[in-house]
């Protein structure tokens, strides 16, 4: 499945939603959670993930915390208060987009999709 353009356009929303559900996560953990939740259908590369994380951090939506875990340094990402507010906005925007796409793909079908 995994269309890179579609994923790229939804990546910030995916990250924000995962961080809303999990207090903090590190990059590799995010990629694995997406892979698990989508049964391997969506695979996020590090090359796509880290620029998105850095952009969200620069926008003040994420905060970071460095921790030493088993002789490795891990950078954990968490939502800021602004990030928590942005989750709802991004999800509403994505739901509206999906509903619009449903109307294009299936004009006679009443949308019942909900995020």
How would you sum up the major sheet? Answer: 3 strands, antiparallel
Number of strands: 3
The quaternary organization reads as: single chain
Structural class: alpha+beta
Strand portion, in percent?
15-25%
Distance between the termini: 20 Å
Give me the CATH fold name.
Answer: Arc Repressor Mutant, subunit A
Query: Based on CA inertia axes, which overall geometry fits?
Result: globular
Radius of gyration: 16 Å
Order of helices and strands: HEHHEEH
What level of helicity do the residues show?
55-70%
Number of helices: 4
CATH architecture: Orthogonal Bundle
Widest β-sheet, arrangement of strands: 1-3-2
Q: Would you kindly provide a written description of the structure presented here, covering whatever features stand out?
A:
- InterPro entries: Metal_resp_DNA-bind_regulator, Tscrpt_reg_PadR_N, WH-like_DNA-bd_sf, WH_DNA-bd_sf.
- Pfam families: PadR.
- This protein has 115 residues and is of the alpha+beta class.
- The chain has a single domain (4-105), classed as Orthogonal Bundle (Arc Repressor Mutant, subunit A), CATH 1.10.10.10.
- Helix content is 58%, strand content 16%.
- The protein has helices spanning 4-21, 27-37, 46-58, 81-105; strands at 25-26, 62-69, 72-79.
- A three-stranded antiparallel β-sheet has the order 1-3-2.
- A hairpin with a 2-residue loop joins strand 2 (62-69) and strand 3 (72-79).
- Helix 1 (4-21) packs across helix 3 (46-58).
- The chain is globular.
- The relative contact order is 0.15.
- The model has no long low-confidence stretch (mean pLDDT 89).
